[in-house]
Amino acid sequence: MFYLPWLEGRRRVFQILHSAEVDVTDNCNLRCRHCYHFQGKDEFEKQECSLSEWEHRFRSLYQQGVRLILLVGGEPALRIDVLMLAHGIFPFIFVITNGTILIPKAFAHRLFVSLDGDRKVNDRIRGRGVFDRVIANYHGDDRVVVNMVMTRHNYLETEALVGIAREHGFRGVVCNFYTPSMGTDDPLVLDPATRKKVVAELRRVKKLYPADLLLSEAMLDWYAQPDHRGFCYWGDQALHFDVSWKKRRCFSDKADCSNCGCLAGSFGSPLNMLKQPGEMRSLIYEVGDPKGPFTPTWGSFARHCLGRLLLPRR
Fold first, then answer.
1. How confident is the model at residue 289 (pLDDT cuts 50, 70, 90)?
2. 63 with 313: CB under 8 angstroms?
3. Three-state SS for 70?
4. I want to staple 234 with a disulfide (CB 3.0 to 4.6 A). Which of 104, 126, 240, 264 is the partner?
5. Whose CA is closest to 173, among 219, 96, 114, 225?
6. Verdict on whether the full-model pTM lies above 0.85
7. Interatomic CA distance for residues 55 and 87, integer angstroms
8. Within 13 Å of residue 49, how many CA atoms lie on the same side as its CB?
Protein backbone atom coordinates (compact mmCIF):
# COMPACT_ATOMS: atom_id res chain seq x y z
CA MET A 1 0.00 0.00 0.00
CA PHE A 2 2.99 2.28 0.53
CA TYR A 3 4.80 1.45 -2.71
CA LEU A 4 3.10 4.01 -4.95
CA PRO A 5 3.31 6.80 -2.33
CA TRP A 6 7.02 5.95 -2.09
CA LEU A 7 7.29 6.36 -5.87
CA GLU A 8 5.48 9.68 -5.55
CA GLY A 9 8.05 10.84 -3.01
CA ARG A 10 10.77 9.86 -5.46
CA ARG A 11 9.00 11.83 -8.19
CA ARG A 12 8.84 14.94 -6.05
CA VAL A 13 12.49 14.78 -5.08
CA PHE A 14 14.06 13.54 -8.32
CA GLN A 15 11.36 14.42 -10.91
CA ILE A 16 11.08 10.77 -12.01
CA LEU A 17 7.59 10.09 -13.38
CA HIS A 18 6.24 6.70 -12.34
CA SER A 19 2.92 6.40 -14.24
CA ALA A 20 2.05 6.15 -17.92
CA GLU A 21 -1.03 5.67 -20.10
CA VAL A 22 -0.62 4.10 -23.53
CA ASP A 23 -2.82 3.26 -26.51
CA VAL A 24 -1.74 -0.24 -27.54
CA THR A 25 -3.90 -0.19 -30.69
CA ASP A 26 -6.06 2.20 -32.69
CA ASN A 27 -8.39 -0.64 -33.65
CA CYS A 28 -11.55 -1.74 -31.88
CA ASN A 29 -14.21 -4.38 -32.48
CA LEU A 30 -17.00 -2.06 -31.24
CA ARG A 31 -18.16 1.48 -31.93
CA CYS A 32 -19.71 2.61 -28.65
CA ARG A 33 -21.82 5.73 -28.89
CA HIS A 34 -19.88 7.68 -26.28
CA CYS A 35 -16.31 6.58 -27.07
CA TYR A 36 -13.82 9.46 -27.11
CA HIS A 37 -11.30 7.48 -29.17
CA PHE A 38 -13.13 7.91 -32.46
CA GLN A 39 -14.43 11.44 -31.91
CA GLY A 40 -12.98 14.12 -34.17
CA LYS A 41 -10.30 11.80 -35.49
CA ASP A 42 -9.89 11.13 -39.19
CA GLU A 43 -6.70 9.08 -39.31
CA PHE A 44 -5.97 5.83 -37.47
CA GLU A 45 -3.03 3.47 -37.30
CA LYS A 46 -4.81 0.42 -38.67
CA GLN A 47 -1.59 -1.57 -39.07
CA GLU A 48 -0.47 -2.95 -35.72
CA CYS A 49 2.95 -2.16 -34.28
CA SER A 50 5.36 -5.10 -33.98
CA LEU A 51 5.92 -6.80 -30.64
CA SER A 52 9.64 -5.99 -30.81
CA GLU A 53 8.81 -2.30 -31.10
CA TRP A 54 6.51 -2.57 -28.08
CA GLU A 55 9.28 -4.24 -26.10
CA HIS A 56 11.61 -1.36 -26.95
CA ARG A 57 8.97 1.16 -25.86
CA PHE A 58 8.09 -0.59 -22.61
CA ARG A 59 11.69 -1.15 -21.56
CA SER A 60 12.44 2.48 -22.30
CA LEU A 61 9.57 3.54 -20.02
CA TYR A 62 10.81 1.21 -17.29
CA GLN A 63 14.32 2.64 -17.53
CA GLN A 64 12.83 6.12 -17.19
CA GLY A 65 11.21 5.09 -13.90
CA VAL A 66 7.68 4.05 -14.91
CA ARG A 67 6.27 1.32 -12.65
CA LEU A 68 2.52 1.78 -13.20
CA ILE A 69 1.05 1.62 -16.69
CA LEU A 70 -2.52 1.92 -17.96
CA LEU A 71 -3.12 0.14 -21.27
CA VAL A 72 -5.99 1.42 -23.38
CA GLY A 73 -6.94 1.79 -27.05
CA GLY A 74 -8.91 1.17 -29.21
CA GLU A 75 -9.49 -2.22 -27.64
CA PRO A 76 -6.30 -3.41 -25.91
CA ALA A 77 -7.47 -7.04 -25.76
CA LEU A 78 -6.91 -7.15 -29.52
CA ARG A 79 -3.21 -7.22 -28.55
CA ILE A 80 -2.96 -9.95 -25.93
CA ASP A 81 0.70 -10.33 -26.92
CA VAL A 82 1.38 -6.73 -25.90
CA LEU A 83 -0.47 -7.17 -22.59
CA MET A 84 1.57 -10.25 -21.72
CA LEU A 85 4.77 -8.44 -22.67
CA ALA A 86 3.88 -5.63 -20.25
CA HIS A 87 3.09 -8.29 -17.61
CA GLY A 88 6.75 -9.31 -17.64
CA ILE A 89 8.05 -5.76 -17.24
CA PHE A 90 5.81 -3.60 -15.02
CA PRO A 91 4.68 -4.38 -11.45
CA PHE A 92 1.37 -2.51 -11.75
CA ILE A 93 -0.75 -2.73 -14.88
CA PHE A 94 -4.34 -1.67 -15.50
CA VAL A 95 -6.34 -2.37 -18.63
CA ILE A 96 -9.53 -0.69 -19.79
CA THR A 97 -11.36 -3.18 -22.00
CA ASN A 98 -14.82 -3.61 -23.47
CA GLY A 99 -14.78 -7.19 -22.18
CA THR A 100 -15.78 -8.91 -25.41
CA ILE A 101 -12.37 -10.63 -25.74
CA LEU A 102 -11.19 -12.83 -22.89
CA ILE A 103 -7.84 -11.82 -21.40
CA PRO A 104 -6.05 -14.94 -20.08
CA LYS A 105 -6.00 -15.54 -16.33
CA ALA A 106 -2.20 -15.55 -16.46
CA PHE A 107 -2.50 -11.78 -16.82
CA ALA A 108 -2.94 -11.16 -13.09
CA HIS A 109 -3.66 -7.45 -13.10
CA ARG A 110 -6.67 -5.23 -12.65
CA LEU A 111 -9.13 -5.16 -15.56
CA PHE A 112 -11.57 -2.28 -15.85
CA VAL A 113 -14.34 -3.87 -17.90
CA SER A 114 -16.87 -1.51 -19.46
CA LEU A 115 -20.58 -1.91 -18.71
CA ASP A 116 -23.01 0.97 -18.69
CA GLY A 117 -26.12 -0.58 -17.17
CA ASP A 118 -28.21 -3.71 -17.36
CA ARG A 119 -28.44 -5.75 -20.57
CA LYS A 120 -30.97 -3.48 -22.26
CA VAL A 121 -29.26 -0.20 -21.41
CA ASN A 122 -25.71 -1.42 -22.01
CA ASP A 123 -26.46 -2.97 -25.40
CA ARG A 124 -28.26 0.15 -26.57
CA ILE A 125 -24.97 1.99 -26.01
CA ARG A 126 -22.36 -0.64 -26.86
CA GLY A 127 -24.08 -2.99 -29.30
CA ARG A 128 -26.43 -5.94 -29.30
CA GLY A 129 -25.18 -8.95 -27.37
CA VAL A 130 -22.24 -7.17 -25.74
CA PHE A 131 -23.56 -7.54 -22.18
CA ASP A 132 -23.90 -11.31 -22.47
CA ARG A 133 -20.44 -11.66 -24.03
CA VAL A 134 -18.87 -9.75 -21.15
CA ILE A 135 -20.62 -11.89 -18.55
CA ALA A 136 -19.71 -15.10 -20.37
CA ASN A 137 -16.04 -14.08 -20.49
CA TYR A 138 -15.60 -12.80 -16.96
CA HIS A 139 -18.21 -14.27 -14.61
CA GLY A 140 -16.48 -14.97 -11.28
CA ASP A 141 -13.26 -13.20 -12.30
CA ASP A 142 -11.92 -11.16 -9.38
CA ARG A 143 -9.58 -9.19 -11.64
CA VAL A 144 -12.61 -7.28 -12.88
CA VAL A 145 -13.82 -3.89 -11.75
CA VAL A 146 -16.86 -2.73 -13.72
CA ASN A 147 -16.15 0.58 -15.43
CA MET A 148 -19.29 2.63 -16.07
CA VAL A 149 -19.45 5.73 -18.30
CA MET A 150 -22.15 7.96 -16.88
CA THR A 151 -24.34 10.20 -19.00
CA ARG A 152 -27.65 11.92 -18.34
CA HIS A 153 -29.34 8.84 -19.81
CA ASN A 154 -27.90 6.04 -17.66
CA TYR A 155 -26.73 7.39 -14.29
CA LEU A 156 -29.75 5.91 -12.51
CA GLU A 157 -28.40 2.48 -13.51
CA THR A 158 -25.61 2.69 -10.91
CA GLU A 159 -27.32 0.68 -8.18
CA ALA A 160 -28.42 -2.00 -10.64
CA LEU A 161 -24.86 -2.25 -11.97
CA VAL A 162 -23.51 -2.71 -8.45
CA GLY A 163 -25.96 -5.58 -8.07
CA ILE A 164 -24.73 -7.11 -11.33
CA ALA A 165 -21.12 -6.83 -10.15
CA ARG A 166 -21.97 -8.55 -6.88
CA GLU A 167 -23.94 -11.28 -8.66
CA HIS A 168 -21.09 -12.15 -11.00
CA GLY A 169 -18.21 -11.99 -8.53
CA PHE A 170 -16.59 -8.78 -9.75
CA ARG A 171 -14.57 -6.66 -7.37
CA GLY A 172 -16.81 -3.62 -7.61
CA VAL A 173 -17.87 -0.66 -9.74
CA VAL A 174 -16.21 2.62 -10.67
CA CYS A 175 -17.60 5.46 -12.75
CA ASN A 176 -16.34 7.93 -15.31
CA PHE A 177 -18.45 10.92 -16.21
CA TYR A 178 -18.80 11.35 -19.96
CA THR A 179 -16.23 13.92 -21.06
CA PRO A 180 -16.89 15.62 -24.40
CA SER A 181 -14.41 16.73 -27.02
CA MET A 182 -13.60 20.43 -27.11
CA GLY A 183 -15.87 22.65 -29.16
CA THR A 184 -18.74 20.18 -29.42
CA ASP A 185 -22.37 20.60 -28.44
CA ASP A 186 -22.92 17.09 -27.15
CA PRO A 187 -26.27 15.91 -25.75
CA LEU A 188 -24.53 13.31 -23.56
CA VAL A 189 -22.67 15.95 -21.53
CA LEU A 190 -23.66 16.40 -17.90
CA ASP A 191 -24.75 20.01 -17.42
CA PRO A 192 -24.18 21.47 -13.91
CA ALA A 193 -27.68 20.62 -12.67
CA THR A 194 -27.49 17.03 -13.92
CA ARG A 195 -23.97 16.62 -12.60
CA LYS A 196 -25.25 17.55 -9.16
CA LYS A 197 -27.96 14.88 -9.43
CA VAL A 198 -25.41 12.28 -10.56
CA VAL A 199 -23.08 12.96 -7.63
CA ALA A 200 -26.04 12.79 -5.23
CA GLU A 201 -27.02 9.41 -6.72
CA LEU A 202 -23.46 8.13 -6.33
CA ARG A 203 -23.41 9.22 -2.69
CA ARG A 204 -26.71 7.40 -2.12
CA VAL A 205 -25.44 4.17 -3.68
CA LYS A 206 -22.13 4.49 -1.82
CA LYS A 207 -24.01 4.49 1.50
CA LEU A 208 -25.88 1.36 0.49
CA TYR A 209 -22.84 -0.50 -0.90
CA PRO A 210 -19.69 1.06 0.59
CA ALA A 211 -17.50 -1.93 -0.29
CA ASP A 212 -18.77 -2.25 -3.88
CA LEU A 213 -18.90 1.28 -5.25
CA LEU A 214 -15.16 1.95 -5.29
CA LEU A 215 -15.27 5.74 -5.11
CA SER A 216 -14.12 7.44 -1.92
CA GLU A 217 -15.70 10.60 -0.56
CA ALA A 218 -12.66 12.54 -1.77
CA MET A 219 -13.18 11.18 -5.27
CA LEU A 220 -16.87 12.09 -5.20
CA ASP A 221 -15.94 15.62 -4.12
CA TRP A 222 -13.62 15.75 -7.14
CA TYR A 223 -16.43 14.64 -9.46
CA ALA A 224 -18.69 17.36 -8.10
CA GLN A 225 -16.38 19.99 -9.62
CA PRO A 226 -16.30 19.76 -13.42
CA ASP A 227 -13.39 22.06 -14.28
CA HIS A 228 -10.01 20.52 -13.53
CA ARG A 229 -7.85 22.57 -15.88
CA GLY A 230 -4.48 23.35 -14.37
CA PHE A 231 -4.68 21.01 -11.39
CA CYS A 232 -5.19 17.49 -12.71
CA TYR A 233 -2.49 15.18 -11.37
CA TRP A 234 -3.21 12.51 -14.00
CA GLY A 235 -2.89 14.97 -16.87
CA ASP A 236 0.16 16.76 -15.51
CA GLN A 237 2.21 14.09 -13.73
CA ALA A 238 1.76 10.98 -15.90
CA LEU A 239 3.14 10.19 -19.33
CA HIS A 240 0.60 9.74 -22.14
CA PHE A 241 1.22 8.20 -25.58
CA ASP A 242 -0.92 7.36 -28.57
CA VAL A 243 -0.24 4.20 -30.57
CA SER A 244 2.27 6.08 -32.77
CA TRP A 245 4.16 7.00 -29.59
CA LYS A 246 3.26 10.66 -29.88
CA LYS A 247 2.94 12.35 -26.51
CA ARG A 248 -0.32 13.92 -25.44
CA ARG A 249 -1.66 15.38 -22.21
CA CYS A 250 -4.30 12.79 -21.37
CA PHE A 251 -6.41 10.08 -23.04
CA SER A 252 -7.18 12.52 -25.85
CA ASP A 253 -5.76 15.92 -26.78
CA LYS A 254 -9.29 16.92 -27.74
CA ALA A 255 -10.89 16.21 -24.34
CA ASP A 256 -12.70 19.17 -22.81
CA CYS A 257 -11.01 19.47 -19.41
CA SER A 258 -13.49 22.17 -18.41
CA ASN A 259 -16.09 19.40 -18.08
CA CYS A 260 -13.95 16.45 -17.00
CA GLY A 261 -15.14 13.20 -15.45
CA CYS A 262 -12.07 10.97 -15.65
CA LEU A 263 -11.68 8.29 -12.96
CA ALA A 264 -7.89 8.48 -13.25
CA GLY A 265 -8.03 12.20 -12.53
CA SER A 266 -10.11 11.63 -9.40
CA PHE A 267 -7.35 9.53 -7.83
CA GLY A 268 -5.08 12.54 -7.44
CA SER A 269 -1.58 12.06 -6.09
CA PRO A 270 -0.62 8.58 -4.85
CA LEU A 271 -0.08 10.20 -1.47
CA ASN A 272 -3.87 10.61 -1.33
CA MET A 273 -4.15 6.83 -1.36
CA LEU A 274 -3.07 6.81 2.27
CA LYS A 275 -6.26 8.75 3.05
CA GLN A 276 -8.55 6.29 1.22
CA PRO A 277 -6.97 2.87 1.84
CA GLY A 278 -10.07 0.73 1.31
CA GLU A 279 -10.86 1.85 -2.23
CA MET A 280 -7.21 2.07 -3.26
CA ARG A 281 -6.43 -1.41 -1.95
CA SER A 282 -9.34 -2.81 -3.92
CA LEU A 283 -8.49 -0.96 -7.11
CA ILE A 284 -4.73 -1.41 -7.17
CA TYR A 285 -3.41 -4.19 -4.98
CA GLU A 286 -5.99 -6.94 -4.81
CA VAL A 287 -5.90 -9.11 -7.91
CA GLY A 288 -6.58 -12.82 -8.25
CA ASP A 289 -3.61 -15.15 -8.33
CA PRO A 290 -3.93 -17.38 -11.43
CA LYS A 291 -2.27 -20.21 -9.46
CA GLY A 292 -4.53 -20.07 -6.45
CA PRO A 293 -7.27 -18.25 -4.53
CA PHE A 294 -7.71 -14.52 -4.19
CA THR A 295 -4.52 -12.84 -2.96
CA PRO A 296 -3.02 -9.34 -3.00
CA THR A 297 -0.44 -8.70 -5.69
CA TRP A 298 2.52 -8.48 -3.33
CA GLY A 299 4.22 -11.19 -5.38
CA SER A 300 4.32 -8.75 -8.28
CA PHE A 301 5.67 -6.07 -5.97
CA ALA A 302 8.40 -8.30 -4.55
CA ARG A 303 9.43 -9.47 -8.01
CA HIS A 304 10.25 -5.92 -8.98
CA CYS A 305 11.31 -4.08 -5.84
CA LEU A 306 14.46 -6.15 -5.26
CA GLY A 307 17.03 -5.67 -7.95
CA ARG A 308 14.67 -3.93 -10.40
CA LEU A 309 13.19 -1.00 -8.53
CA LEU A 310 16.18 1.31 -8.76
CA LEU A 311 18.16 -0.33 -11.53
CA PRO A 312 17.01 -0.33 -15.16
CA ARG A 313 15.94 -3.67 -16.48
CA ARG A 314 18.18 -4.82 -19.34
1. very low
2. yes
3. strand
4. 264
5. 114
6. yes
7. 11
8. 21
